[in-house]
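Folded chain entry
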Amino acid sequence: MSAPVDATVHGGRQHDYVSQVALYRHDLRRYLRDLDWADEWRTAAFSTAEDGLAHDARVLARLYADGWNRYGWPETAGGLGGDEIHRAVYYEELGYAMLPVPAQHWTLETLGPALLKFAPDLAAEYLTGYLSGAEWWGQSFSEPEAGSDLATLRTRAVDDGAGGFVVNGQKIWTSQGPTATRLLVLVRTGTPEARHRGLTMMMVDADAPGVSIRPIALASGRRELAEVFFDNVQVPRERVVGDVGGGWGVAMHLMQFERGMYGYAVLTKVLTELGRLREDMVTRGASAAQRERFARVYIDVVSAQARTATTVRRLARGESVGADSSIDKLLFGRAEKEVNDLILDVRRGQMIAGQASADLDTRRAEWWYSRAATIMGGTAEVQRGIIADHLLGLPKERRGQ
């Protein structure tokens, strides 16, 4: 794996950036400030998810060539070293520069760490392409009758007699599924009675024979999610992530990052949106009630960010976060929804009756997508149940009463 940027782009400062996060932050901030295509990046807007992802892939390719988005990822997988703190700083600095986070990062932060821990050979082979924007993956967990309760999923993988597996079943709500190159799929290899003990994680190529992907049009009209069908799909044994029957452990490890790193990145994004809204309120004027509500929402966002920052530091130390991450999920899901509701209310005339444009379409799509913020990745009700059972030790809920 070549890494010519180490000595050329950063003037040989790679190891300084790894050991000195403050220096990495300082020079990344200067890089973004002096970037001659920053305005193009900052103002880019598209009317389809496909066009938006294609644009973001080009952004990632340029950042990768200059090396800046490779910190926080190991050199064995296309990175330049460092840990989760470097990635958090990267998101913070994009926010300070009012630059949107490339959409591929949402799934990268969720799926990448699982591969690094449980399938380092696959990470070494494929994560470089992810970091450089050459490919991205979909997370295929939920099914029509197995959403937050993954222990009931039915997509099945059976031994093909030659060392591999044959997968049959259906997934739904696969993030970035319509354009994904690969899928991380949670399948059942044990009996239904085994529940979570009978699950296995696998990497499946999206263009493998027998894989059918049907984009799902959201209320905004954008096709960001997909349902995926597996019809006798052959999966080699080396594509198993972790152990056969160990998929639940992989999923739980993954969830820490979905609620920690992903949550932190989302909060830097909504802080950027609040910054833009503040400029609009100063320019166009706002009522006292709107200003007060802005302050309350801002406090909720920075409180959630402080909480997820604690989780990011724990992840960087290699700690297992476990049920604590449910608190993060509750806080950042609510904050994301509150920010988008505030934007709609302050800009109601423009949001509802504004002249059609890619920028307005994007803002509307963000509001529609935020409707699912407290549902996707585990509903708020499920997170409260986890907190009650595993953190507070409250009595079990009586069902049917």
Notes: Residues 166 and 232 are 5 Å apart (CA to CA). The mean pLDDT is 90.
